[in-house]
Each structure stands twice: as C-alpha cells, then as structure tokens.
C-alpha cells in the first residue's frame, strides 16, 4: 500500500506559513480536540450549546476578537485568525459562528466605531468571554436588503428610543449586549443595547435543521430608551455594518474549509476500512476520483483564503475580494460535504460521523453573511462596472 498524506498535505501548504501562525493553529486544534469534538455531536442533536462556558474557554486562549489590537485582544494576524476559524469549523460551523459573531461583528463594531468609553466598558470583558455580544442587522423582512430596514431610533431629549425587530441573530438569547443598527433622521446608525434594558426581548429560534450547535434568536425592541452615549459615534451610514460583515465573511472563507477538510478526512478513513466486493472501497476508481476532486477543490480554496489573508495583513484586502472567497469556498465546501456523504453510503446520514452535520450546517453558511447570489452580483458588478441590484 502506498504512503498516504492528509488532504492539506498534498501540496504542502504548511510551508506557506510562519512558525507563529502554525503555533496559533496548534493551540486551537488542541482546544478543538479536547473540548469540542467529544461533545459537539450531542450539542447538535439536542440543539443546545453551553455558550457562556465555551466563551470562557475561547477567551482563555485569545480566540475572541483575536485579530483586534488592545483592550485584551490578542492582536493576531488575519492569517492566524483564519487558521483558527478553519480549525473551529472542522468541529462545527456553529462553534466558529460563536467566535465570528463575538469578534468580527460585535467586538469589531465597537473597536472600529465606538467611543473610548464604549471600548473600555465592553471589549476587555468580551475578549475574556465574560460578556457575550451579538449583532442586530437582519430583520424578518429584510435580509439581503439591509438598506430597507424598519427598525427606527428617534430622539427624545438627549435619549434615543429604539423600536423594531431583528431576526436570525446568533448569540442573541444569551448576549449581554447587542450592536443594533437602526434608521434615524440622519440615516443608519449603530447603537449598543444592553440586553437587560426594559423593552428588550430575546426569543430563541427553535426547530432549526441546520446550525443546531449555535444559539439563534429574535430581538424585539419595544420603545427601548437608551442614553445618548449608546450611539456608536463613528458609525455613519450603511457602510459601517457592511464593513463588519466583511470582517465576518473573511472568517467564513477559512472556516468553510475546515468543514470540508473534516468531511474529506472522514471519507478517506471510512473508504480505506470499508470493505465491499472483497476490497476497501478506497481502492475503486470511482471512489478515488471523488476523493481526488474534493482534495483539489480544498487545496484551491485554501490558497485563495491564504492569498486574501496576506492581503488583509498588508491592508490591501477589498470587500469584493472577500466576496470571491466566500462565494467560492462555501460553495465548494458544500459540494465536498455532499460528495463525501455518498462515499459513506447509508452511514453518511448517521450522527456517528460528522459529514451530514457539516453538510446541513454549510447550507446555512451558504446563505448567511450574504447569499451566494448576492456575492455573485458583487463580483459581477466588479467585472462589468454595472450594478444589478435594484435601485
């Protein structure tokens, strides 16, 4: 039998990384092996996950807001953060989502657009996992079109009064603070809303068939009164929340590869031990063709993610380039998961193996942080110079 290599060793991608980046990866990989893998299938099946306990674990190793600087954040490189997302999503997309929403959405919004007092109040506690954040942009009637949001904030003396509903908000039922985007007389602005304020209700969304190892909720704002300093002073217009989405999408570019890698590794292990017609099914040409095609797409997606990460660290990454990465890597990761499921046959639908869980999760990842169709239009606009979005 010929020597085997793991999927990402095929073209020696580790040679493209610094020792520091690989050390970051190893820390997360160990955490995943010790704390997440033994439990995630059960969390997924029950639709429950110990968010606060996990946040403390993640904070202890610097995962929360790890690519931000100061305020207790690790100040790691974009590539190191990407590797962390890959390892987390190799366990489950919902666990990577917890870290992404906390760091790339809620914490990044405060770090980039908040006042110094807001940063001091929230960021150290969020970096350690002592406080949980969420990001309220999507509404029941406005997902891909956030410019049409109905949530409003009006002045009442020096205070703000917020009214509206946000939907599909990760971490909302357990969050301490929400970054809420609302329409004002001056346009779209961001607000920090403590979740224990009168008039704030967080309802857990149940009966999900995907991303079950993640807490998702609806936020209802019923005349919530906030002081003037709840406003994020530097966040003006829709570009502010969209820039936060760009941060989160970058993590997805890497994270989806983790789910794909885990599916492929599982399929290879299964195929080399599952005997049919007197030999391991890995020895049949059709099986090897499936594995080879999946490995090729995994390598290409990894090189794309790494290229975007290097651009991010150089300060030259553009939003449409993140759209290229999100569109390609999630779409290919889902295709890999589906193909690997076929290799496992009937066992592919069993929770004993992670493949079907990853496939179900990736159906959600394909949609959130911008659907594939939205990213196709972003790329199309760059290629043609013409916007296909409705005016």
UniProtKB/TrEMBL annotation:
Q: Which InterPro entries match?
A: Acyl-CoA_Oxase/DH_mid-dom (IPR006091), Acyl-CoA_Oxase/DH_mid-dom_sf (IPR046373), AcylCo_DH-like_C (IPR036250), AcylCo_DH/oxidase_C (IPR009075), AcylCoA_DH/ox_N (IPR013786), AcylCoA_DH/ox_N_sf (IPR037069), AcylCoA_DH/oxidase_NM_dom_sf (IPR009100), Glutaryl-CoA_DH_mitochondrial (IPR052033)
Q: Which domain of life is it from?
A: Bacteria
Which parts of the sequence belong to the Acyl-CoA dehydrogenase/oxidase N-terminal domain? 18-130
Molecular function as annotated in GO: fatty-acyl-CoA binding; flavin adenine dinucleotide binding; glutaryl-CoA dehydrogenase activity
- Which stretches make up the Acyl-CoA oxidase/dehydrogenase middle domain? 134-224
* GO biological process terms held by the UniProt record: fatty acid beta-oxidation using acyl-CoA dehydrogenase; fatty-acyl-CoA biosynthetic process
Which terms are listed as keywords in the entry?
Answer: FAD, Flavoprotein, Oxidoreductase, Transit peptide
SUPFAM superfamilies in UniProt: Acyl-CoA dehydrogenase C-terminal domain-like (SSF47203), Acyl-CoA dehydrogenase NM domain-like (SSF56645)
Question: Gene3D superfamilies this protein is in?
Answer: Acyl-CoA dehydrogenase/oxidase, N-terminal domain (1.10.540.10), Butyryl-CoA Dehydrogenase, subunit A, domain 2 (2.40.110.10), Butyryl-CoA Dehydrogenase, subunit A, domain 3 (1.20.140.10)
* Location of the Acyl-CoA dehydrogenase/oxidase C-terminal domain: 236-383
Q: Which Pfam families match?
A: Acyl-CoA_dh_1 (PF00441), Acyl-CoA_dh_M (PF02770), Acyl-CoA_dh_N (PF02771)
Q: Which PANTHER family match?
A: GLUTARYL-COA DEHYDROGENASE, MITOCHONDRIAL
Record's family? Belongs to the acyl-CoA dehydrogenase family.
Q: What is this protein called?
A: Glutaryl-CoA dehydrogenase
């Amino acid at each position: 039998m010929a020597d085997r290599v793991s999927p990402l060793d095929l073209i020696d991608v580790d040679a493209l990384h610094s020792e520091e980046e690989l050390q970051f990866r190893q820390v997360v990989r160990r955490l995943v092996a010790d704390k997440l893998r033994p439990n995630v299938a059960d969390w997924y099946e029950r639709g429950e996950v110990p968010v606060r306990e996990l946040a403390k674990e993640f904070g202890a190793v610097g995962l929360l807001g790890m690519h931000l600087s100061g305020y207790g954040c690790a100040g790691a490189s974009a590539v190191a953060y990407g590797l962390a997302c890959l390892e987390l999503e190799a366990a489950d997309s919902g666990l990577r989502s917890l870290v992404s929403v906390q760091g790339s959405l809620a914490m990044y919004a405060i770090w980039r657009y908040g006042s110094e007092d807001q940063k001091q109040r929230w960021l150290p506690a969020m970096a350690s996992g002592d406080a949980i954040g969420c990001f309220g942009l999507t509404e029941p009637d406005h997902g891909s079109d956030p410019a049409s949001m109905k949530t409003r904030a009006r002045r009442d003396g020096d205070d703000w009064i917020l009214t509206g509903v946000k939907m599909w908000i990760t971490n909302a039922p357990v969050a301490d603070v929400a970054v809420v985007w609302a329409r004002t007389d001056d346009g779209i602005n961001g607000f920090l809303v403590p979740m224990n304020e009168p008039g704030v209700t967080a309802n857990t969304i149940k009966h999900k068939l995907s991303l079950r190892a993640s807490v998702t909720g609806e936020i209802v704002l019923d005349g919530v009164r906030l002081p003037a300093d709840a406003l994020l002073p530097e966040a003006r217009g829709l570009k502010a929340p969209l820039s936060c989405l760009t941060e989160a999408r970058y993590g997805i570019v890497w994270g989806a590869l983790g789910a794909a890698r885990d599916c492929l590794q599982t399929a290879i292990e299964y195929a080399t031990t599952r005997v049919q017609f007197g030999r391991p099914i890995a020895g049949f040409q059709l099986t090897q063709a499936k594995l080879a095609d999946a490995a090729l797409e995994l390598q290409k997606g990894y090189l794309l993610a790494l290229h975007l990460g290097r651009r991010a660290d150089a300060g030259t990454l553009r939003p449409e380039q993140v759209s290229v990465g999100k569109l390609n890597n999630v779409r290919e990761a889902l295709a890999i998961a589906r193909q690997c499921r076929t290799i496992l046959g009937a066992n592919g639908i069993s929770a004993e193996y992670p493949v079907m869980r990853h496939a179900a999760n990736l159906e959600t990842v394909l949609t959130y942080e911008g659907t594939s169709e939205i990213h196709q239009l972003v790329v199309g606009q760059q290629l043609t110079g013409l916007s296909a979005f409705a005016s």
